[in-house]
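Before a colleague's protein record goes any further, I have to sign it off. Thanks in advance; the entry in question is below:
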Amino acid sequence: MTLNGPTLSRRTLFRAAGAAALAGALLSSSAPAFAEPAPGLQELIGRRRMVLTGGQSAAGIPELAAQLQGMGKTAENWWTSLDKTATRTSLWNDVPLTGIGQSTAATGNMGLHFNRLYDMALGYAVPGNPYAGNPQLAADIVAGLKLLNDTAYKSGMRAAGNWWFWEIGVPRKTVDILTLMYAEVPEDLRTSLLAAVRWFAPNPNWRGRATSLAETGANRVDKSLACCMRGILDNNVDDIALGRDALSDTVRGGTNSVFTYVTSGDGFYTDGSFVQHGYLPYAGTYGVVALAGIAEIIAMLGGSTWAVNDPKRTVLLDAVEDTYAPFVWDGRIMDTIRGRAVSRQREPDYVSGFALISAVLLLAPGCDEPYRSRFLALAKGWLERCADQKLVGHPTQSLAKSLLSLGVLSDSAVVSAPAPVYSRMFADQDRLVHHRPQWGCTVNLSSKRIGRYEWGNSENNLGWYQGDGMTFLYTRQDPSQFSADFWPTVDPYGLPGTTVNDQVRASGAGTAGTGIPRAFQAFAGGLTVDARWGVIGMDHLNHNKTLSGRKSWFFLDDAVVCLGAGISGTGGAAVRTTIENRSFAPGSVPSVRTDSRNRSLDPGDAAVTVQRSVHIDGHGGYVFLEAPGVSGSTEVAVIHRTGSWFDVNSGADTGGSPDPVTRDYLTITHHHGVDPVGAGYAYMVLPAASREVTFSESANPGVKVLANSADVHMVKVAKDNLVLANFFAAGGVGDYSVSGPCTLALRETGDRLAVSVADPSRTQSSVRITLAGSAWGTLVDSDAGVALVSADPLVIDVQLDGHGHQKNLTLGT
């Protein structure tokens, strides 16, 4: 018989009490009985099927008509192009399996085979599309599975190429295809396929068939889900328990539990950071995969003998607000935590955002308050503010995810969470994120601990400088800045915020494996003040040590101040700092005001030299500040750039289209010259500011640069009685001196002085701060490890934690 799953009418869905009740309906409805699985397991199969298909409830909902149609067209495309000849050795001629077990290319093609069969299985299993229940389609899918199991993916085979396909990608697709077509796939074939899954990934705690490399983070979750499902599908209760327990890493006492905070390596950190692959902030992709997988496992096993009851689940629940939410801009996940996924044409920032939203909605029903209400409010706010993209019905989303979103959007009892307005520092991943009412900003730093970028498997081929200070500026006037063909068309040597030389770099295309080049220097990080302002810095030494410099960013109420000093190069290369490289649709670059002159710039026009300010209509302003060490010239130009997604990603299963795409870029570039010595820059970005505000700030900046040298960057904001500084070495400026590298912030309010200190270099156990001529001599309040040594001059000793986390104290008169 054909298993169609529980039936929910549209009326039933929208009578349910919001997204939580909708998720509950999708995940807990009774499923038809099965002959094979043991009692209790049939419901778990039904739950999983509902997550994959959405059930019959999707049929007849106007918002999903296009999605259903697209699903049918995809199934039809793979079905009609399927090689059905008796002598075939592959299912599709464009992805041959020749050399499987020895060839990296064949391994990637095998992954594509399973992906395409999964698309066909969805076409067969999802009610409402033209191929639902088609017996010939089912027969061809089963025959395709048989060929793959006989020739490409079977027990005892040797794995070659990218391990991920053998142990994660194909197992996940295999168990999902068998879930969708449980009754149609003969038992012996199902058993053989699941045996292959066990052969290549026998234990989700470990990589491969040995026990020498423990899985972590998202990889552990992916394997756990596949392990649970293979146990459910063939009545192997030990596998269900194995998959569940791997989440908590019971075999190693929780060492790699996804529910435990880590202090190094992969996983969640107490400050909200999430690291994967050892050295990269990755919450936006691997982190979302982990969250979604855990949510699916919790929902699938909830209430059963194998329910996930780890008491440390709150680590994951807290991460929704502490790890993920800070890096969401109106439904988009900022590229700063998406790693090499930025190069994937089919996974722009809003698709990652949609995946997060769906995971949160799936997780919410099983949570106690206050998590449940806060999760629903966050998801609804993200959905509503993603004005230029809609999750509901989006072709990258499943019907079940669209249904969950429809549910929360239609639930008047759920009040949308507003957009955040705060500044947050994540010292364990070298990131700060700054949200203001009309704009947001974050910067990619790198250090000995955190990598510059990730490349490999022919992904992110041109990402060389992403971690060298790339500055992401988001505005509500321009939400698609980094998703509208930005990565294949932007000059990879001219990423906003970076200082690079013009030495030619090699594309990563064609390379096997992955790599994360770390930086050479220790100093990268900073702190925040009252969750309102922030400062970060980076001691920059480029990939081949031919360029060095110190860089800082100061995040204020209406501006980001950027300082650079000590910029020196060797090897005969020209050096430039890219202040802005803004992307626009061809022919739509707005008018520009440079200094006091309005301009309409077109591609090919000569670059315009500027002295004081630039304003981009509808975007914001840039003011060039008086500061020590500034040299060189600044130019504005419009450049027409063409590239392809294949250029930046030619991976086996994520590669982009070779079709050319084009954007126009308005660039603001500070040229330091060839082999500069001790060069610098100083400018202020005014996001979403008007011409009038830009002109006013240019004439009378609200920020004063107190220092801009290779040793210290310091600014003062008079209206806020605020001083922010990065000391890259021991030393002093005016009344301020420090015993070693640190970030320092001071704010005066009435008879109190608030001081914050951090050591982004993590090279010392303590730092001494001296304030000459200070009026404050009493320690009113402080974090642990702070000692007042002297009142005149004011001397403070601060014990550091070795992780770059800030210490705060308050002084009185």
Observations:
- The longest helix spans residues 104-125.
